[in-house]
Design goal:
The structure holds two protein chains of two kinds.
Chain A: H1 2-6, E1 13-15, H2 19-43, H3 45-51, H4 54-67, H5 70-75, H6 79-89, H7 93-103, H8 119-143, H9 152-179, H10 182-190, E2 192-194, H11 195-201
Antiparallel strand pairs in A: 1-2
Helix pairs in contact in A: 2-3, 2-4, 8-9
Chain B: H1 28-63, E1 98-102, E2 108-110, H2 112-117, E3 121-128, E4 134-144, H3 145-152, E5 160-165, E6 171-175, H4 176-179, E7 184-190, E8 193-194, E9 204-207, E10 219-225
Parallel strand pairs in B: 1-10
Antiparallel strand pairs in B: 1-2, 3-4, 4-7, 5-6, 5-10, 7-8, 7-9
The chains are: A mainly alpha, B alpha+beta.
Chain lengths: ~210, ~260
């Protein structure tokens, strides 16, 4: 209370992510990073020539991939994380307006209303969660080759390869947008954001 | 907790009168999540026809692609570099040696020049990797393995061959009957060029009818043994008798 009285409202920080949520993001990002880098070593000939050690790289890739859903599952123990999942899941009328504006390439703030998460973040979260599980599933089919019937492994490889490429592009978009918004990054790093930013970017959010 | 506010002007359509505040709104996230999972499963089921179409399309696109970027796409064609060690020493005409030993009457050591002086066989067939990629119509040229075995004089009790490589780790094996096939070469040239280091040069094995892991790169030793000893990948789950289309749970079109 005293802090609020001393500091002007524009500079007060408002909490956005708890410590548990930030750790879920950090560990997921780290595991995803390991998956992407080892995938590059396995897949792109120039990198493969640089690193070699195929057996080791494959093992690291497999275990990092298998561990990828673990931070989110562990995060379910956090009440704040579960609440954010609910926010990510539910789409209100304002989200439909946001998507409409995005489709029309309308970048004006008033046409892009958002609560704690904007519609783009919601769709990204749901898609990357589904895509990760598809990668884990197809990866397991490729890993345990003798457990699955004929043709399954080739089909799994096909899906794994193309989805990997898609995830790479979408992930680059996710990171690119974070790079373009320092305050959003600060929110994920420190847990709080400026009141001004929250009002500008997420005006329907009532923390 | 923190209900998502709907805008005052537009009442939320999906929320029933009994919905808890936090549950308001359409569960689009769940639908996107489940939809992605379903698409993934559908992709696995529909993969064979999709893959054929994609290969045909990318194969023709790669012919007209000066950037080479299509080569990086899945099934974009071309060879992929696999090595099981972090670095492989380079060997050339001055320091390359191939030894033939084991259950033979006349063990021998060949230099690159020795091998080039022997009768050469050239064949053009598809290369099929067990991980799925296939490179059509690839010329290989070299000495028939059977010629080297005959020169060494294989003893009666012999039944198999073990191959070792100067990367220090990779090994392969064939039965004697497989090794004597006419489409098994000690290859010196690939795609009508001397075998480069990345492709296993200066000398690699070429086992035309089998998955490409049998075609050991950087070949340095041929040892005649009594029984087959599984090679590097075979100790890690691959089939020893790696006929293309009839092993490793795959049904690719045979290569030879």
């Amino acid at each position: 209370m005293s802090l609020r009285a001393e500091a002007p409202p524009a500079t007060t920080r408002i909490p956005r992510f708890t410590r548990a949520e930030r750790w879920v993001h950090r560990t997921t990002a780290l595991l995803m990073g390991v998956c992407v880098v080892t995938a590059a070593f396995l897949y792109i000939p120039e990198f493969a020539q640089l690193v070699g050690r195929r057996e080791l790289v494959v093992r690291v890739h497999e275990w990092a991939g298998l561990a990828l859903p673990v931070p989110v599952l562990a995060g379910l123990a956090s009440r704040a994380f579960r609440a954010d999942l609910r926010h990510l899941n539910r789409f209100g009328p304002h989200d439909r307006r946001w998507v409409g504006a995005a489709v029309r390439r309308d970048k004006r703030r008033q046409s892009r209303p958002a609560a704690k998460f904007n519609a783009g973040q919601k769709i990204y979260a749901a898609w990357i969660a589904g895509a990760t599980l598809v990668m884990v599933g197809t990866g397991l089919l490729m890993w345990f080759t003798h457990l699955t019937p004929i043709m399954w492994r080739t089909s799994a490889t096909f899906v794994h390869d193309w989805l990997a490429l898609t995830i790479g592009v979408v992930l680059a978009g996710h990171i690119g947008m974070a790079l373009g918004d320092p305050e959003a990054r600060r929110g994920m790093r420190t847990g709080s954001v400026s009141r001004e930013w929250a009002r500008r970017e997420h005006r329907l959010w009532r923390p | 907790m923190n209900p998502e506010p709907s805008e005052p002007a537009e009442p939320s359509e999906a929320a029933g009168p009994d919905a808890a505040p936090a549950e308001r709104g359409t569960p689009v996230g769940r639908r996107v999540f489940l939809g992605t999972l379903a698409l993934g499963a559908l992709g696995v089921v529909a993969a064979p026809p999709l893959q054929r179409g994609m290969e045909a399309f990318l194969g023709s696109a790669a012919d007209k692609d000066p950037t080479g970027l299509t080569g990086l796409l899945p099934n974009g064609g071309g060879f992929r570099y696999y090595s099981v060690t972090s670095s492989v020493p380079h060997r050339n005409a001055t320091n390359y040696r191939l030894t033939v030993d084991g259950l033979v009457d006349r063990p021998a050591t060949y230099t690159l020049a020795d091998l080039r002086a022997l009768p050469q066989t050239r064949m053009v067939k598809d290369v099929q990797c067990v991980t799925g990629w296939r490179v059509p119509g690839t010329p290989f040229e070299g000495v028939r393995l059977s010629a080297l075995l005959d020169a060494a004089g294989v003893r009666a009790e012999a039944g198999a061959i073990r191959f070792t490589c100067f990367d220090g780790a990779y090994t392969e094996s064939l039965t004697l009957a497989q090794a004597r096939r006419a489409d098994v070469l000690v290859a010196l040239r690939m795609q009508d060029k001397d075998l480069g280091h990345d492709h296993g040069g200066p000398v690699r094995l070429y086992v035309a009818p089998m998955y490409f892991y049998k075609s050991a790169k950087w070949l340095s030793g041929i040892t005649v043994t009594e029984k087959v000893k599984p090679g590097y990948w075979e100790e890690r789950g691959y089939d020893v008798d790696a006929w293309v289309g009839r092993s490793n749970g795959r049904d690719d079109e045979p290569t030879s």
